[in-house]
């Protein structure tokens, strides 16, 4: 057998051994990575198997590039692409004074007049409401290119601001100081409730938020907001039973603080189980004082008290809970 005939056999053997080793290493590496980081590893492994030398080098370059330029950073470049700065419309921003309760934002964003749509979009810059991303995506689904640009730039500005607040507070907060831990928790909460993140980004941030709360609970076991925040994350992750147990724990340990009642009642309301809400409302009527409630909490309790006449006629929740201090 001539050397010319032997060489291809060695190449085939080398290719097979190399492919098996690369595949096994890739599997091990992927198990250690988050779900959103596995795509580029799979691509690198495939390139390395098909092209042992060149593909391996190219695959390593792909992984390095993906680490250097994460997917979420690409959205930040869109503002530069459309050459739009939010501060250029300062007058429009300060003029807008919309309220989530008074102005139907869906109608504004889908208004036939482009000027009205832009005005509604810009109002999100100064308004602290939940679900900004949902309304802004409505603007991006329109046919008016200028409105689409406004919506994209506003979403970019808001998400960047919220994420920057989280990262800055993560770097600066003292985990032993409850006030600073609470501020970081509220920043996570605002980012998630804004609905500005993609589903994959939101899942990653919720996982990060949950780990933060678990650690905070070990340092501050007497903080009720940690239990309710923990329950909120589990509820968002589709675990309402575990969330309800945490809310119940918060109510049991801190009966004079309203947030546990509020979270649990909202959960029962969404699940359409009024029979579960009645005892919670009864306990709230004993321990809560109207003067300590926020306007949202007062509205919730007023609404549920109105419904409670159908659930349990003898429940006199309104007179006991909402009496003036």
Structure description:
With 325 residues, the protein is mainly alpha-helical. Among the domains are: 3-69, no CATH class; 74-172, no CATH class. 73% of the residues lie in helices and 0% in strands. It has 18 helices and no strands. The chain has helices at residues 3-31, 38-50, 54-68, 71-76, 78-81, 90-95, 105-109, 114-122, 132-140, 145-172, 178-193, 199-219, 224-236, 240-253, 258-271, 274-287, 295-311, 317-321. It starts with a helix and ends with a helix.
Beta-strand content bin = under 5%
Broad structural category: mainly alpha
Largest sheet: none
**Alpha-carbon Rg, integer:** 27 Å
> Which stretches are low in confidence, meaning pLDDT under 50 for 5 or more residues running?
78-105, 308-325
| Oligomerization state | single chain
Outline, from the CA principal axes?
elongated
The termini sit apart by 102 Å
Which features does this protein show?
18 helices, Tetratricopeptide repeat protein, single chain, transmembrane, 325 residues, disordered C terminus, TPR-like_helical_dom_sf, mainly alpha, membrane
Brief summary of the model shown:
With 325 residues, this protein is an all-alpha fold. The protein contains 18 helices and no strands.
List strands and helices in order, with pairings:
Elements lengths: L2 H29 L6 H13 L3 H15 L2 H6 L1 H4 L8 H6 L9 H5 L4 H9 L9 H9 L4 H28 L5 H16 L5 H21 L4 H13 L3 H14 L4 H14 L2 H14 L7 H17 L5 H5 L4
Helix pairs in contact: 1-2, 2-3, 8-10, 9-10, 10-11, 11-12, 12-13, 13-14, 13-15, 14-15, 15-16, 16-17
Keywords: Membrane, Transmembrane, Transmembrane helix
Pfam family, one: TPR_14
Protein name: Tetratricopeptide repeat protein
């Amino acid at each position: 057998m001539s050397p010319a005939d032997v060489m291809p056999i060695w190449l085939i053997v080398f290719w097979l051994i190399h492919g098996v080793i690369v595949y096994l290493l890739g599997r091990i590496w992927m198990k250690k990575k988050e779900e959103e980081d596995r795509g580029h590893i799979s691509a690198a492994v495939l390139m390395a198997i098909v092209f042992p030398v060149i593909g391996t080098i190219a695959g390593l370059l792909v992984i390095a590039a993906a680490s250097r330029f994460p997917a979420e950073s690409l959205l930040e470049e869109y503002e530069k692409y459309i050459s739009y700065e939010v501060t250029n419309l300062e007058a429009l921003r300060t003029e807008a004074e919309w309220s989530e309760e008074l102005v139907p934002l869906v109608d504004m964003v889908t208004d036939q007049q482009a000027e009205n749509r832009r005005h509604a979009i810009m109002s999100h810059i100064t308004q602290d409401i939940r679900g900004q991303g949902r309304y802004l995506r409505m603007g991006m689904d329109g046919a008016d290119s200028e409105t689409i640009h406004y919506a994209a730039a506003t979403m970019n500005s808001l998400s960047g601001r919220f994420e920057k607040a989280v990262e800055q507070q993560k770097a600066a907060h003292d985990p032993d100081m409850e006030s600073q831990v609470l501020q970081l928790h509220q920043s996570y909460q605002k980012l998630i409730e804004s609905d500005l993140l993609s589903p994959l980004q939101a899942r990653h941030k919720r996982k990060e938020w949950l780990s933060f709360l678990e650690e905070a609970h070990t340092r501050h076991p007497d903080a009720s907001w940690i239990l309710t925040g923990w329950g909120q994350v589990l509820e968002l992750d589709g675990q309402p039973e575990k969330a309800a147990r945490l809310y119940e724990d918060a109510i049991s340990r801190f009966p004079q603080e309203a947030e546990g009642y509020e979270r649990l009642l909202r959960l029962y309301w969404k699940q359409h189980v009024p029979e579960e809400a009645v005892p919670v409302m009864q306990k709230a009527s004993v321990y809560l004082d109207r003067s300590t409630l926020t306007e949202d909490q007062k509205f919730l309790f007023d609404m549920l008290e109105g419904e409670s006449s159908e659930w349990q006629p003898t429940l006199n929740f309104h007179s006991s809970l909402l009496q003036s201090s």
